[in-house]
Design brief:
There is one protein chain. This protein has one domain. The longest helix has 29 residues. It starts with a helix and ends in a 5-residue tail after the last helix. The protein contains 7 helices and no strands. α1 packs antiparallel against α5 and α4 crosses α6. It is mostly helical and 212 residues long.
C-alpha cells in the first residue's frame, strides 16, 4: 500500500500547488481565460471559486490527501465525493482540451497554472484511481450524490451569470454567437458526457481487480 500512499500524496501536492499558484495569480490580477477588464479583488476571488476547474481540483486535493493517509478509505459520503472528484477532474481535462485550449494564449506562470490544473492533475488523479482505487466503491447511492454537485454548479452558474453578466466559460454565455440554443446544447452535451463517465467508472469499478 506504500505505492498507493505515495501516488495519492503526489497527486494531492500537485493539486494543492496548482490551486495555490492560480490563487496567487488571481490575487495579483493574472489572466483567467481572457479577461481584459480586471474587477476588484473580492470579485476576482469569488470568480476563482466559481470555476468548475477549481472546484474539481479542490475535490481531488481533498480526497488525495485523505487517501495518502488511508488508501482503503470508505464510507457512504466518501464514495460520492471520491466519484465526483474523479469524474469531475476528467470532465475538466477533456472540456479544457476540446473547448477552451484553442481560446487561450497564456505565458509564464499563467501557462504553468493552466497546465497543472487542466492536464497534470487530471492525469494523476485518473491514473491513481485506475491503478490504486480504492474499489469497489461505486454504487447507486454514490452516483446520485455525486451528480448533485455538477448539476447544482450548472444551475447556480447560469443563474448568477444571468444576473451579473459574467460566466466562467464562454460556452455558457448566451451572448455568444450560438445564443441560448448554444448554451442549452453545451450544457446538455457536457451533462451527458458526465453521465457517460460515471457509467464507465462504475463499469470499471465492478470489473477491475479489488484495490487496495
Amino acid at each position: 500500500m506504500h505505492r498507493a500512499r505515495a501516488w495519492h500524496a503526489v497527486t494531492g501536492v500537485v493539486a494543492i500547488a496548482a490551486l495555490v499558484l492560480q490563487l496567487v495569480l488571481v490575487m495579483q490580477g493574472g489572466r483567467v481565460l481572457d479577461e481584459t477588464d480586471q474587477p476588484g479583488l473580492g470579485v476576482r476571488l469569488a470568480r476563482f471559486v466559481a470555476y468548475f476547474t477549481v472546484q474539481s481540483n479542490v475535490l481531488v486535493a481533498l480526497t488525495s490527501v485523505h487517501l495518502a493517509r488511508d488508501p482503503a478509505r470508505d464510507g457512504p459520503a466518501w464514495r460520492a465525493v471520491r466519484l465526483a472528484a474523479v469524474v469531475g477532474i476528467s470532465v475538466t481535462g477533456v472540456v479544457h482540451f476540446v473547448l477552451l485550449r484553442p481560446l487561450l494564449d497564456l505565458e509564464g506562470a499563467d501557462y504553468a497554472a493552466d497546465k497543472l490544473l487542466h492536464m497534470a492533475v487530471p492525469v494523476l488523479a485518473v491514473a491513481g484511481w485506475a491503478v490504486f482505487g480504492p474499489r469497489p466503491r461505486i454504487d447507486l447511492r454514490s452516483v446520485r450524490l455525486a451528480l448533485c454537485w455538477p448539476l447544482a454548479w450548472l444551475a447556480v452558474t447560469l443563474v448568477v451569470g444571468g444576473a451579473s453578466g459574467w460566466y466562467p466559460y464562454p460556452f455558457l454565455d448566451h451572448r455568444e454567437d450560438e445564443g441560448v440554443a448554444g448554451v442549452v446544447a453545451s450544457s446538455a452535451g457536457i451533462t451527458v458526457f458526465f453521465l457517460l463517465l460515471v457509467w464507465l467508472a462504475g463499469l470499471y469499478d465492478r470489473r477491475a481487480k479489488v484495490a487496495p
